[in-house]
Amino acid sequence: MAKDLFYSLDLNLLRTFLVLSQELNMRKASQRLFVSQPAISQALQKLRNHFDDELFVKVPKGLEPTPFAQQLATSIAPHLDGLASELNQVKEFDPSKLSGAIKIAVAPIVLTCLSGSLFLRLKEQAPNCTVELIGWQRSTFEEIKKGEVLLGINLEMSTEQNISQQKLVELTAKIIVNKSHPVKKQQVTASDMAPYPIASVITPGWNDNFVLAANLMKEEGVNPEIGFRSEFVMAVVDVIQQSDFFLPHSNLFPIQNYPTLKALDVTIQGKPYFHNVYSFYHSKYRQTPLIEWLHQQIQQVLNNQIANQF
């Protein structure tokens, strides 16, 4: 049976052969391939044994290819060049060439504040994509694992197996109340807000069974009243517009869109309170250009939103 010249060959040697046929110089080939000249010599000897041909002979100016080597180089160069081109294109990323759907699950506290601006930014750069922004649900992690959701955006939380997270932005806590609210101070504490009920936004799967503001107030030694909770941010906003309830939120709240509301600064144990927004995605996408691009766009939108609030 004739020797199979393809399957019996270490294909790395073909790259060395092609560079040698282009450079016709051992030193230049070693520099281009980032290996030593002895390594080039060893590779060339393996190629000679494999093809049973001298391939290159020494001449005063370097190397001279044999007729077989010339024919081999002419035959394989288009294939290796094509392979190199395809491999290099894998790392190139052009959002304008994206197609299909990008589904992003967003916590209510974030979704209301960036849905329009994020959609427009993504659509501008990836016009052939369908952008789907949905609310964060108790099932979001499972949907990310199954590939039904590409990316999730939420406040800091414990992750599950095969879920990676990355910090997007740091938020500063704010208290949102109506402008006629009895509290007139710009900077408030837990004691200042203790007489008034909390109107809280529920993020399914994150704070189903607790209210973060209430827990923080208890740590300050006060006993808060939780007066209203809803998964719908607009329902909570409607309540605080018509009552003395207060909404614990952040500097991400689009206060400029609500002329009847105001944002108060809040301190916990004498200091501003910060919490972070994270992205969550399947670990297999950890180093993909698509996820990196989405992070950049979301971070930019969030930072722009924060900068324009106050």
UniProtKB/TrEMBL annotation:
Superkingdom of the organism of origin: Bacteria
Molecular function terms, GO-annotated: DNA binding; DNA-binding transcription factor activity
Annotated Pfam families: HTH_1, LysR_substrate
Keyword flag DNA-binding: yes
Residue ranges occupied by any HTH lysR-type domain in the UniProt entry: 9-66
InterPro entries: LysR-type_TF (IPR050389), LysR_HTH_N (IPR000847), LysR_subst-bd (IPR005119), WH-like_DNA-bd_sf (IPR036388), WH_DNA-bd_sf (IPR036390)
PROSITE patterns: HTH_LYSR
Keywords: DNA-binding, Transcription, Transcription regulation
SUPFAM superfamilies noted in UniProt: Periplasmic binding protein-like II, Winged helix' DNA-binding domain
Family label: Belongs to the LysR transcriptional regulatory family.
PANTHER family from the UniProt entry: HTH-TYPE TRANSCRIPTIONAL REGULATOR LEUO-RELATED (PTHR30118), LYSR FAMILY TRANSCRIPTIONAL REGULATOR (PTHR30118:SF14)
Protein name: Putative transcriptional regulator
